[in-house]
Fold this protein.
Amino acid sequence: MEIRKVAILGSGRLGRGIAENAATKGYEVTLFTQGAGSQNAPHRIEQSLNRKVAKWALTETQKRVILNRISYTADLKELANADLVIEATVDHLYTKQELLRTADRLCKPNVIFILTSAMLPVYEIARSLSRSQLLVGARFIPPVVDVDVVEFSYSQDTDPTAVETVKKFIASLGKTAVHVHESPGLVNPRALVTLINEAAYLLDEGVAGAEAVEMIIKHGWRMAQGPFEMADRMGIDIILDWMEQLQERYGDRYAPAPIIRRLVRQGKLGVKTQQGFFHYNEDGQRIDKSGLGQEEK
């Protein structure tokens, strides 16, 4: 089956990134805008493309062509037109199951579903679907447009044709699908939360302020972002949720640092609330250079 129309369920950072990437590569994209922050999805995608225009990576005309390939809707009946469905919702079993069950009823019978979960195995979601053999796991890593690797997984019951189709789709986005065995947290999320959590413990213990920890790790390891900015951009509530699930599965090596719980309790979730470890403006740009320090705990 030729894939031309891609439906993405979820318009958060992950869903927007996949939508921009797919549209840039010529796919017609329908982004389903349900939930908190969904009204900002068109603006955020255009902002991302504007940054590329400013760097001469795109022309204004190319930007407009890409934007015209993306449509937005909250009407799940539009799923009937999709050639491929990608869920990009919160990592909660019930939420994903209910949404994909609905999609299962509305989509054409041969449409493949992609599960982007970092924590839930394919087989656990697949068993609730009539097309259980057509569910494939693909964990895109934010910022999606800049990361050229995808964690790729599937169950023993997944149709090999579906596996190959998704691998080809990932390749068409300019990315490499790297196979990992199904395991809660996969590779990147487990490694990422470990880094963020240890950095947060350093802050909690008064070893250094947020900016000092950020600079040492970011520049020392030649990273585009340090651990605190990564946490802020992903959402500190999401990081905490991952840590709690991993702690339940693997034990106290994933016990969240107190400051992570404290920030979530205070509603300081990162970019989406304009305050986390650092402060941000409405466009998601940092507006301070200090961040949390020992004195702010």
Q: What stands out?
A: The mean pLDDT is 94. The radius of gyration is 19 Å. Residues 5-179 form a domain with the Rossmann fold fold (CATH 3.40.50.720). The chain has two domains: 5-179, 188-289.
